[in-house]
Amino acid sequence: MKKAGIVVAAVAALALTSGAAWADADAALNKAGCMACHAKDKKLVGPSFKDIAAKYKGQDATAKLMEKVRKGGSGVYGPVPMPPNGADKISDGDLKDAIALILKTS
Q1: pLDDT the model gives residue 24
Q2: 5 occurs within a structural domain
Q3: Which residues have a Cβ under 8 Å from the Cβ of 70 and sit 6 or more positions away?
Q4: Rounded CA gap, 73 and 57, in Å?
Q5: pTM (predicted TM-score)
Q6: Number of separate domains in the chain
Q7: Is 59 part of any domain?
Q8: Cα dihedral sign for 79, 96, 62, 101?
Q9: 21-42, pLDDT tens digit by residue?
Q10: pLDDT at 1 over 60
């Protein structure tokens, strides 16, 4: 989600704070299979969204996390690898929106 971009970003930020945004993100994350390993507030196989938000607090980590989801990886939160998740599982737009909400989790 220069002057017009700032306005769009502000509107998007307001939209992302709503419960409907979480519902949309939850649906996308469930459909992609993310929720099989992640939860909002507790560690499952992978870290909780709350732990991810804390780790990247104050950073612009959206691009980094999008790349991590797309390529997969291991070692940041332990030895269990996260498999790569392509755009066929979750679209770039849905992934970006979900990451923005995850980073706002407290």
Answers
A1: 84
A2: no
A3: 84, 85, 86, 87
A4: 20
A5: 0.77
A6: 1
A7: yes
A8: negative
A9: 778 888 999 999 999 999 999 9
A10: no
Sole residue written with tokens 């780790």: 55
Range of the domain at 57: 19-103
Distance between CA atoms of residues 62 and 98, nearest Å: 10
Ordered DSSP codes for the chain: --HHHHHHHHHHHHHHTSHHHHHHHHHHHHHHTGGGT--SSS-SSS--HHHHHHHTTTS--HHHHHHHHHH-B-SSSSSPPBPP--TTTS-HHHHHHHHHHHHT--
The type of residue at 41 is D
Tokens representing residue 51 in the block:
């732990």
**In the prediction, which pLDDT does 18 show?**
58
